[in-house]
Amino acid sequence: MALLQKSERRSGAPARAGTRVRRPLATLPGPGLRFQRKDTEQFHLCLGATGISRSDRRRFAASLLDAILGGSASSRLFQEIREKRGMAYAVYSFAAQYTDTGVIGVYVGTREENLEACIEICVEQIGEIAAGRLRKGELERAKESLKGRIVLALESTSSRMSRLGKSLVTDTELLTVERVMAEIDAADTGELAELATVLLPPERLAAAGVGPDETRFRTAVGRASEKLVGQAAA
Questions:
Q1: Cα 36 from chain centroid (whole Å)
Q2: End-to-end CA separation in angstroms for the chain
Q3: If phi over 0 gives left and psi between -120 and 50 gives alpha, with beta otherwise, what is residue 93?
Q4: What is the pLDDT of residues 20-73, one digit of tens each?
């Protein structure tokens, strides 16, 4: 309590309920393309897009979308790219929420000859989820995995404090664990399909890469979004 009082005195009066601590981001940046040439053995590539904020009720479905797409060893990208085809050692999706925006995307590190195929698989799997074509038991396994990670994180003091801190600095409601579990259980296939459709269509994708050949990089990115490559070349 003493620490809280000191913090309030230094920062001024505490914000009233419902007021925003930070000014909302006025305009969101459009998708862009960046490449850094480096004599690496592999290409390292990220495809990403603007996500959702920490206060968005869809964030639970977004976490499940991330888990199914590439957030674990049983995810689609891991299985299709690494396990079945051996095209990459590191491949995953990522998602994060901030005060008034977020980010979502995928990463893959692979050899030059596999780059285009890896991107095609990423786009294909996003499309499958957007079409609502989840595999039998896929959503249920993702839910149980996500809930299990949350419960395990509660055993860590640092994880607990991080959870409290994120809610404080982003001015969002701190939900009970029971409420979080209920929100996760309530997500359905249609909600995940809508999120994939809204957040990850080709026209919203940005790309960043590191590798030995920019031409090869741009050609591969064109498999995901020809418009993005065309805009970058203009």
A1: 22
A2: 57
A3: beta
A4: 445 555 567 789 999 999 999 999 999 999 999 988 999 999 999 999 999 999
Angle at 191 between CA 162 and CA 160, to 5 degrees: 10
DSSP-assigned states of every residue in the chain: -HHHHHHHHHH-SPPPTT--SSPPPSSPPPP-EEEEE---SSEEEEEEEE---TT-TTHHHHHHHHHHHTSSTTSHHIIIIIITT--EEEEEEEEEE-SS-EEEEEEEEE-GGGHHHHHHHHHHHHHHHHTT-PPTTHHHHHHHHHHHHHHHHTT-HHHHHHHHHHHHHTT-----HHHHHHHHHH--HHHHHHHHHHH--GGG-EEEEEES-HHHHHHHHTTT-HHHHHHHH-
pTM of the model: 0.85
Q: Under 8 Å CB-to-CB from 120, ≥6 apart: which residues? A: 223
68 in Cβ contact with 124 (< 8 Å): no
Task: Look at domain 38-226 and name its CATH class.
Answer: alpha beta
- Domain map of the chain by residue range? 38-226
Write down the pLDDT at residue 171.
Answer: 81
Angstrom distance (rounded) from CA 48 to CA 199: 9
